[in-house]
Amino acid sequence: MKKAFSYSRELHCAVITGASSGIGAEFARLLGSRGVYLILSGRNEKALNDLRAEIGRDICTVIPADLSDTKSCIDFFAKCRRYDPDILINNAGFGLYGEFTETSLSKELEMIDVNIKAVHILFKLFLKDFTRKNRGYILNVASSAGFLPGPLMSTYYSTKSYVIRQTQAVYEELRRKGSRVKVSVLCPGPVNTEFNARAGIEGFMKGISPEYCAAYTLDKMRKGRLMIVPSIKMQAASVAVKLAPIGLVCCVSYALQSGKKRI
Ligand SMILES: NC(=O)c1ccc[n+]([C@@H]2O[C@H](COP(=O)([O-])OP(=O)(O)OC[C@H]3O[C@@H](n4cnc5c(N)ncnc54)[C@H](OP(=O)(O)O)[C@@H]3O)[C@@H](O)[C@H]2O)c1
User: Fold this and answer.
1) CATH superfamily of 13-262
2) What is the mean pLDDT of residues 76-96?
3) Catalytic position from the list 7, 37, 156, 162
4) DSSP per residue over 10-42, as a string?
5) Domain segments of the chain as ranges
6) Is there an atom of ligand 1 within 6 Å of 42 CB?
């Protein structure tokens, strides 16, 4: 994908959660190559430091944080604030496969903490700062999973639905105020990352590359696009889900999920 524009003239610092692997690491590589200073976060300090060495120690800093913990989220925000960031990529998240009566309650509560609570806290705190400055970009990473109920991954799908609705609502509040702060929500289908392995499954649908996902998304985010769905297949699926009866959507969703293999 072509290198569309340089961010460095107006934007100088991006905070990226979940930067230690997958889509987050690609956002970091891309923004770093465009001259944006980076705050890389995650729990895996080694992976974050390796990425920092790869991108350039002088243009990155590492702030590790376990975002399943509320206090860590708030401390993380306070540390980031010193760098006066103007981009937040609210990306950390994970999934879990299995029937609702069988999956681990503690793992699901951790998922709700990372996928909803941490995204909510950081969205709010950074947005308040960005609104005061009347500039900046926030990208909340949801999933196409947020468009529909997801039997066999019900909690994950529900968490991503929250992120979509929250972002859409706040977008409207900002639009009505004429704010120059841009908020977007990324809703990819399968992307080839660590995601499936962490969720305990092998996917069967061909995913897009994290490089393509990140490049496509940054282009749309820069243009102020609210909903970012980086594949034609998923764009078509999102329309079909709105038109089909919910019973049919659940049946198809179950069939797709049951095609995944546990690892
Ligand atoms: N891959 C897909 O098919 C797909 C599709 C749609 C949406 N998404 C979404 O895309 C986002 C990125 O996922 P990915 O595909 O890049 O998967 P990934 O490679 O597994 O990356 C997930 C990132 O989240 C971080 N993370 C998880 N738990 C955390 C915690 N408690 N505290 C802080 N960071 C935490 C991980 O960092 P540490 O392990 O270092 O903490 C890691 O950097 C997620 O929100 C995911 O739901 C993925």
Assistant:
1) NAD(P)-binding Rossmann-like Domain (3.40.50.720)
2) 97
3) 156
4) T--EEEETTTTSHHHHHHHHHHHHTT-EEEE--
5) 13-262
6) yes
